Structures are given as structure tokens and as C-alpha cells.
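INFO  loader      accepted 1 record
INFO  loader      residues=362
INFO  predictor   begin
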Amino acid sequence: MRAAVVNGFGAGFDVEEIDIEEPRGREVLVDIKASGLCHSDLHFAETNFGMEPPMVLGHEIAGVVAGIGPEVTEFSVGDHVVGSLVQFCGACVACLSGDTVRCAHPEATLRAPDEPPRLSRRGEPVLAAMGTAGFAEQALLHENQLVGIDPAVPFAEASVLGCGTITGAGAAINSAGVRPGQTVAVIGLGGVGLNVISGARLAGAARIIGIDLNDEKLELARAFGATDVVNGRDGDVVAAVQQLTDGGVDHAFEVIGRKDTALQAIAMLAVGGTASLIGIHGAGSTIELDPNDFLRWQKKVQGVYMGHANIKRDIPFYASLFLQGRLNLTDLISVEIGIDDLNEAYDQLRTGRTARSVITRF
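INFO  predictor   done
INFO  writer      dumping C-alpha cells
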């Protein structure tokens, strides 16, 4: 099959022919119809976060079940599915409590070391990164990483449910627990940031401020529920937010992964406010904080991973909201591309001009 392989950090994506195994045990073979370009895949392609080339990245996938292993109970050939990088065993205390993103044994979704790799090239292993390896014609996943969805959801829109939506909307609804009437600021209006706005709107936030450097994204944020927008090039972002909210917001979400914007998120909080850090920072980066600032103003900072989602619950929920017209997924898709356009599309993503590019031609 054709797949975009990372052969070295910073070397880009090489579209090549590689081999994929038949499903074993609880594995499901999926014909991929759409694969979203998340910024985190770019981080993993350029920096060593513990995954070694050669590898196939891509974790926002939607497609059709093409084959199932003998122990699969949840899916049948022909089912429409969404894949996610959330790997969970289903048997540990966290999983049994519903906190699958905190699973103690995510490795249970992978093949054992003595089994043949799911992906290979000329007989040598190729890492199926995050258990999804979605930048390819097919993917072989454990059934715990897949969720069945209504076939009425188009594949491109379905693909963003697996990461961008559950991370962004989930950050507002699950992680931060935004309540009706509260105020929210979102720094960084890519695919995840726009989904944070959607989640805050669904949660009943009274004021939602979108912050970015790109005027087109600021205008797009209004289509997702932003009541106000601030261009970071126009001056002091923190002062602008404090003026709009008479002192600061109850919740600030940083979706870029930069020290300066993370500090802005903390500084723009009202008394008792919470800053949720979502964006991936560079390896070794640090942030210095004044503890007295937190004591006096009762601020909180939390890291958010995958919107504290339970994918088996949350992905079908967001899919149903989309079909009801209550969740905007269509405007997240900036452009549909072919797999051969992957490097160019990531160059565009670096500029900050696109929300989500989605591979729909393999």
C-alpha cells in the first residue's frame, strides 16, 4: 500500500510502497478515506519525542472496516469508523472508571514484541506511530482505538472527530468544566482552538474571545461561536481581554505551545480562573511562575491531554451534534488534498493560514 513514511527527523514525508499485515486478535483493518493533518504529527516528524523512524504518522482517520481479527466483537466489515490515538486496555482502574486517557497499560493495544510488526518495508519494521499510522491507504488498529459512527457523517468531517474535536471541545467541556455564563479566551485558532470555541459555546459560555494573528482565522472563529476576537498584532492581548471582560476570563486556553502565549493565558485570568495548556511545547521548554500570584489570585494551571475524552462515548456524541447542525465541523476543513501533497500542506500549516487540511486521495 502507499504510505507517507518519515525516514528521519526533519526529513519530511516520503510516499512509498510498504506492507501491512492481516488483522490478528482484536485488530481491525481499515480502508482510510480521510486523514487529517494535526500539528502534533509535524512535531513528531521533526523532533524525537520517543518514536523512532522509519515510521508512519497520522492519527485523525476515518474510513471503512475492510477486515477484522478473530477476537473482534465490536465491528463488522463495511462499518464506518473513526480512529484515535487514545490507546487504552479497558481493564485497569482508570479504564474501568471511564478515564481511558489515563490508562495504565496502553501497550495492551499493540502487538507483542515476538509478533511480526503491523507495518514493514522490504522485510524491515516500520513503526505504526500511536497505533494509528493514518497517513496511508490502510491502517491496522486495535478495536479499542476505533469508534463506529453514523455513515451520514462525511469522511473528511468524521476524521477531525478523532483528535481536533475531542481535544478542543473536550478541553472546554470535560477538562475545564466551563459552565453557563462564564467567560472564555482561546489563544490559537487552528483546528483544536476552533473546537475549544465550539465546546465553550455548547457549554453555555457567555463570552468567548478568539485570539490569533491571522484575520481570516479571527473571522472564522465567529462561525464557531466566538463573541469577540483579538488580533495579537494589535497590541497588549492581556489588556484587551481584561477590558472586554472587566478584569479577566474564567477560563483561558492556550492551543499553540509557546512560552509567551502560555504566560498570556495565565495573566488574563480573573480571580479564581483556570488556564488550560493544550499546545505541545518544544522539548526541554520551561515556564517560570510566581507562586504568590497563584496564592493571591487563586489561579489554576492544568495540562490537557486529548480533552479528557472517552472516545467510545464522546466521538459518537459529537458526531450526533454535527448531524443535528449543532457542531460545526465543515468549516474546519480548509482543503482536501492527496497524500502526495502532504509536505506542501504542512508547509502551509506552519504559516498559520489553515485550520485543517485533510487527505482524501491516496
